Amino acid sequence: MDEEFLYVRDTSSWNTRDQGTVVTDWGITCIPDNENADQVIAFSWENIHHVEYISGCLFFFTNAERTDQYEIHISHFVKGMSDDMKPIAGAELARTFSDMAATQESASEEDAISEVVDRFYSLREEGKEDEALEFAISFRKDTGYVTLTPDLAMLLHKKGQTNQALQLLDDDFNGLPEDNLFWKSMLAYYKYSLLERIDDNEGCRKICQYVIKHVPADLTRDDGVVILEDAKQDFKKYEDVFVNSFLQRPYNQRKLIVPVESYTDLSQKTLSVLDINYLPAINFPMGHPVANQLYVGHPYLPAKYIPFENYELELIEDKVREFCQVMQYLGATEIDIECINSSSNNQYTHINQKASGGVNYKVASVQGSGERDRTNKFIDDISQSINLHQKFYPKAKPSLPKDLVWYPNEPSWQRLYKQRMQGAIREHEERIETKKSQVVENSELKKISAEVKWLFLQANGNWEQSMGEKFEAHENAILAIHVKFAPIESLQGETVSNGTPSNASASVSVFSETEKEYIEELKACLEEDEEISSRERRLLNRLRDRLGISEARANELEESLKKPQLTEDEQEYYEEYKACLEDGNRVSEKERRLLEKLRKMLGISEDRAKEIECL
Q: pTM of the entire structure?
């Protein structure tokens, strides 16, 4: 509206004013064909270097090299001119238009953008938000500039188009070169501000950290607020929420963590990076956490995290220990555990030889031996750690122990419990496979390895081949657990709920690494007088919390170290045996014969008698 009209030529039919040329003090606008009204020729005088008339057309060149121009036929300026007069008129128009262009000073890009921004804000202040929105969209599309993108995103959000707003910010952020920290930081700043409005705290935390790391220190908002300082305050708020609610998050969103000394990047998708000095209430093994080390969360104990390199072994040990504990409470008399696909198993070796056999067997076996050693080490470790044979002397009524972790999620165990309580089962073989308690899928390993490696390198670490080997897929280990039960009608003793079943003579000895560490400290405390002082108890409780061992499990471990409780009959046999030793260190043949009669009268087995004598 502020342009001055210098010349108008209406070339439309019947004066419909949908085709023609307009010359103003700003520039020239021409619609050559009303059937293609969207094909508009428009340019300002300040963008024109000079004008030439060539073969019936005026060429408006934007540079001296004549490499870019606008082309308009002379008929759009002059009507009814003969062919003889066109060159004369064309040359005159070219000279006139060149002189007009020469009077203009080219506005700077900054001034031009400032004018666009003023126009946008003016429309918004006038309440013309729809018009402002269309203006900003058109400007972004025509120029590729991101000047109005933050305001455009906020307008879209205001109109309920938040997803479109976020996508717009992402597109423009990704379209900028990496070294354009000014606008990349600005777009990231507005994105996390927008995410805060839709309560995406994790997204805010990740993007805010990017802003803190990359934003120029002197960058300010229109109201004078320094963006770096504002982002630091925002990050503290997001971090508090993230840490305090971390253990309540769905398991897949908190499964993998890496503590770090300082944040360098939070863009990871498969793992969570945490400040080692500001961690959630997590129970780590003794000596942990360690910076830049990967930890895996226990699938059923939210606060327990295990170093990645041995998490599978610890989980399977934990699962087997609980299974054996359940079997013991159900009246097991004997438990055998065997890793049926360990490398020492003949069947396993035969299978591998068959797979590698044929004409090239010798070559294949030599080349593959190192790989086989690596892939089967995990199975061998499990075989050495868990293989056991135990016998029990149950008398208590079958029951379930308290504080079970795996049992609620194991339908086969629950069915076995029902069968046992009905007296319908005397023997059972359970197969436990490591892949069924594997919380990190093999398909995830490559992505996890890449993210951990990136973090490690960002912290100026040296990534060695041995570190990468931690992320190699393990073979599936299969444990066969064979259980024999006492007749259910013979189990009439009382059931106790806070330790071991009454009259049980042995406890399950499959302990996790953290439990073994706790047992060693217990032994030290019980060594002198089998009593634990109040001061020792306080220190043991703190150690138990740090190791992630429940109070109930700690009581079980402590009871397992004390002398087992004897039945009245067993106590009588024990007292008579000790009396036989009062005069020396051995039992005479006559005394042994009398002890044997007593044993049989009391209903004590030979094996149990030997265990009692060893107390």
A: 0.63
